[in-house]
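Appendix B, record 7
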Amino acid sequence: MSNYLRCRQRWSEECELALNKQINLELLASYQYMFLSSYFDRDNVALKPLVDFFEKCSLEEREHGTKLMAYQHMRGGIVTLDAISNPTVEFNTDNKVLEAFNFVLLLEKTVNNSLLDLHKISETNNDPQFGDYLEGEFLKEQVEAISELSKYITQLEFIGNHNYGIWEFVHKLN
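Structure tokens (predicted):
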């Protein structure tokens, strides 16, 4: 008996493996955002709007992973989940908010690059449906997120280390 699902049709092993890599990356991103949410919830940091902001981001990344798992099954692939490594966020300056946003910008760019690589794999494997799915569900959203984070970083750089300005910025987040 085959390990593949009955519905598998023109779903290459390369696409299956690459999609599993993306699923794991989305879940790692969710975990990183969860760490940031927890960090800003500490009583010595106490920035509740960032707790909510990063928690929402964590949920969104987890939803992306879940969507990709459903797609993997719809195409007849098998989902494999890897162990999630410890969060890699380290704060080295007094402006932890700016550092956090710089970190998540890099994280979102990493996720976006991986999605773009996945799209190339769909083309290489002559799978236009997979490419269309990625374009319709993920690519535009990634570009929008990167743009939004970049603007937040610009604002935070303008504010500098002025605590009240940072507090004001945080409390005006969507």
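Remarks on this record: The chain has one domain: 13-171. Residues 6 and 76 are 6 Å apart (CA to CA).
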